[in-house]
Design a protein that fits this description.
Elements lengths: L1 H5 L5 E3 L1 E3 L6 E3 L1 H4 L11 E9 L5 E17 L13 E11 L14 E2 L3 E4 L1
Length: 122
């Protein structure tokens, strides 16, 4: 695709992250699927994505999913990227879960199936 041709190679790829200040460790699904990894599988996340609908209203969607990868890359100075040209981005590849829109903070929530992967900024 046209976007893929313009994207640079990521500068950084994370397999494990820890929340600043001694918080939880998050293992990407690529790491937890290794047979020799005895750690607890903590590769799921709660995320929020904000987008603009056709009426130009902002919609915030909360979801849960598998954290597959985290990338850090700097976009080329190219008119194709408009305002993002030459900017550094930190992106997450997430495979969302179908939870029928339920929030696990408010009620029991179950993984019904997986949805198509998304990439969002961190």
């Amino acid at each position: 695709s046209e976007v893929k041709k313009c994207l640079p190679t990521p500068l950084f790829y994370a397999g494990k992250l820890q929340v600043h200040g001694g918080g939880d460790s998050f293992w990407m699904t690529a790491i937890t699927s290794r047979a020799a990894t005895p750690q607890r599988k903590n590769c799921y996340i709660k995320y929020e994505v904000t987008f603009e609908n056709h009426k130009h209203s902002l919609i915030c969607v909360t979801g849960y999913g598998d954290l597959n990868k985290i990338f850090m890359l700097t976009l080329a100075s190219d008119a194709f990227f408009t305002s993002l040209s030459s900017k550094m981005l930190i992106l997450a590849l997430i495979t969302p879960w179908n939870t029928e829109g339920k929030d696990a903070m408010l009620e029991n929530t179950y993984l019904l199936s997986w949805c198509a992967p998304i990439i969002t900024d961190v």
